[in-house]
Design goal:
The chain is an alpha/beta fold. It is built from 13 helices and eight strands.
Length: 302
């Protein structure tokens, strides 16, 4: 069975170029689409791709303004654009197959925005759902592991700097900044235990993101409110995973999501942080394999 990861590009209707990676047999009965987090890229799913490619076609892509995909201006750095992009990607990579969608952090928010803006498309195409270390309530529960008053000051500073960064377009910082950022990202994004190679991969992705993307998406992300959208979704097999020590999307975020989605299986991973696909790869992969199997069963019954 083909597990070679192939690189390609998709041109969206507006002309934007997205970098896409695919693995697994092109004629597989189920396609799995993996969406990465804010200022990251599709490589963060590398530990899931090969196991999944044994039973499904697997697609990852770098969101607009991230990784190897095309840059954007700040007016296009919004969740509604990401939701529309996902609809186009699904039409391009899996026009006929049922799809299992998995979204980490911003990727999960993208899925919710896609479902909100394209409900009939979602109902027709999606056969399984994994929401990983994400939120449906913007920054409501985010306190960065700090006392609330200090977290409020940090958020004000973050929003101010985001507006400044949004004006810097496609400019990317020098890679030497990665060394300075690594300890902060280790504290913010990871729990225990932590593989230094995972921190290095994550840091490289952050440094590769344009400053316009880093700052531009912040207002849209903070203002998101999609619990009602989740409650209205058609019933599909759904797993919700979060790390016990997640400082960006703490367990309260996933508890709200699971409450809005009756029947969703909620897993809180002890001592883990925000980067569950790297920190707890076996748990994440097992959840995805279960969803693929459920999608196969649903297809056979149909």
């Amino acid at each position: 069975m083909n597990q070679t990861v192939e690189q390609a590009e998709i041109r969206l209707s507006g002309g934007l170029r997205l970098h896409v990676r695919t693995a697994g047999p092109p004629d597989a009965a189920v396609t799995v689409v993996l969406l990465h987090g804010w200022v990251l890229d599709g490589r963060t799913w590398h530990r899931q791709v090969r196991p999944l490619a044994k039973v499904a076609r697997v697609v990852t892509y770098d969101a607009r303004g991230h990784g190897r995909s095309g840059g954007i201006d700040r007016r296009a750095a919004t969740l509604d654009h990401l939701g529309d992009d996902l609809a186009e990607v699904l039409d391009a990579v899996a026009p006929d197959q049922p799809v299992v969608l998995a979204g980490h952090s911003l990727g999960g928010m993208t899925i919710m925005e896609y479902a909100h803006r394209h409900p009939a498309h979602f109902a027709d195409r999606i056969a399984g759902l994994l929401l990983l270390s994400t939120t449906a309530e913007g920054h409501t529960h985010t306190v960065y592991g700090l006392p609330p008053r200090l977290a409020h000051l940090v958020r004000l500073a973050e929003m101010t700097s985001a507006h400044m960064l949004a004006r810097m377009g496609d400019w990317r910082p020098h890679r030497a900044l990665a060394l300075a950022l690594r300890p902060s990202l280790r504290w913010l994004l990871f729990g225990q235990p932590c593989d230094p190679a995972d921190v290095q991969l994550t840091t490289k992705a952050v440094v590769r993101a344009s400053l316009g993307s880093i700052g531009g998406f912040r207002p849209s992300v903070g203002a998101q409110a999609r619990l009602e959208t989740l409650a209205a979704l058609p019933t599909v097999p759904t797993a919700v995973l979060v790390g016990e020590r997640d400082r960006l999307t703490p367990p309260a975020c996933s508890l709200s999501i699971a409450k809005a989605l009756p029947g969703a299986a909620l897993t809180i991973c002890p001592d883990a942080g925000h980067m569950l696909m790297l920190e707890r790869p076996d748990v994440v992969t097992a959840a995805l394999l279960d969803l693929v199997e459920a999608a196969h069963d649903r297809r056979r019954r149909a």
